[in-house]
What we know:
alpha+beta; globular; 10 strands; 1 helix
Amino acid sequence: MRSRLVRVAGIAVVVVAGLSGCAEGQTVPRKAAHLTIDGYTRTTRPAACSQEQSYRTIDIRDRDGHVQAVVLVSGERVIPQWVKIRNVDGFNGSFWEGGVGQAHADLSRGTYTITGSAYGIGNSNPNKVVTTDFKIVADC
């Protein structure tokens, strides 16, 4: 009887250790981000996300382009603070809360969606400031 109890206890330890080992080593890869600039949508690498206090930074690098956005997370609300767009389809521009452009942000199941307009310049006419619509969809 004692031998059977030791064997059952040993099997239980192996099963628990095996299950805890699976949970630690597995990560779920993030989905690709999607950028829409002036009506043109591209799929990019997954976003690199970081958080400092209530501010979430979403960083998307793709080919020669770079988009960085910061949102303030306040309970259920997500408030865009700024968006910088650098060399995406020839556009360089920004949105700044209380400054230039306008934006709105939503968060649903770990996916941030930021839409709005940015002021900047395009390669086609670098001497003229333009307003360009953007949309960022990124998992964090």
